[in-house]
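Exercise 7.
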Amino acid sequence: SFCTLLAASVQREMKTSPAHWLSVPGAGQDLVGEREGHVACTVFEGGRQHVLLLGGVRDGDSSDDILLGRVDVVNLDADHVSPTVSWEVIASLPIAHREGASLVGRGAEHADAWLFGGLDADSLDHLADVWHVSLERAVEADVESVGEKGAQRLRARALSPSHGAVPEPRYRHGASGIDADRFVVFGGETADGTLKNDIWIFSHVTSAWSKVACAAGPVPSPRFSMFTVGWRCDSDTLLVVAGGASFPEPGRQASFGDVWAGHLLASGECRWRELSPSFRLLAPTNGGGACLLRGSGGPRCCFAGGKDTSTGSDAITMIAFNDQGGESGIEHLIVPENAASAEDVDGRSGGEARWPHWRYLTAATLIHAGRHDFLLLCGGNCRHPDATPCYAVRL
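Solution. The predicted structure, written as tokens, is:
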């Protein structure tokens, strides 16, 4: 039941649909604005959704602040709702002083996440540490690693590998949760500038890493700042890697537009397959955000934001799979309805941006509002000055 898309079926079933970005209001928006290279994920506490956000750079400076955004819902009319996110600083910890890291939530109903790797904002050291970050009361043994500002408490605990090999320190890698006990890491850039295409899985249960070997055959090129989504599929795991960038020659960066599906077999190997190599599914892009949408139509990988060296795309790419990871996936290209006019290609009206134009080094996460799912983009570098820190689009 290997997960793949065939070019013929994608072309036959691909559709283009309008989508509408919503600016996301709420208190503390200035805490998120003009921030890039940060990470975010959705966590749950007491039946309520929150967005945990940390790291990155604002106005050239890094910060130890860890933000928590409370997700609420506004009813626009009988048929439409809009999310709001109100931000506050809940802690100031040295572990947040990094960029290009990964922050992976443990899933629905979990109030915790895993923080891995990145680049230390002061020393510029590449990191390979793992932290368990949770919204819970501190225990006395952790009191030195806990900060408190506002209504929430945050506990941060280092997870030292108990045995075995560990990944080389890196940043701008890809990461995704597999289930509530494991997350997967792909690629990234190491301290000597080497780009990677290796796969590592961390187990919260054993507090150990395992490296995944690749089966014979084609594999994705080494890269950084790619879209990465993983999930359980039957008894195995699917890992989707899309876009990203590399340095084909010194001083020149180029983005990828390919999409790869890796089937992580129970034997411990990964069998890669490029999806539709003869038909481009994705514009060459790096530095965007991704999320996984699980619903009655099967899992869907959603990619948004990012850009190439000097160009970008405002489109949202969604690639759908069936629940068994079979070959019945459909690729949807959703173009913002605001961008339909050639006279308004920069998304601006009266000097105000109406959608997140070419958001780069942004952070993305999936949130729920009412009965609907939304992709939330937080911060990022924008082609044009934009006073709106957060945008959401209904999926």
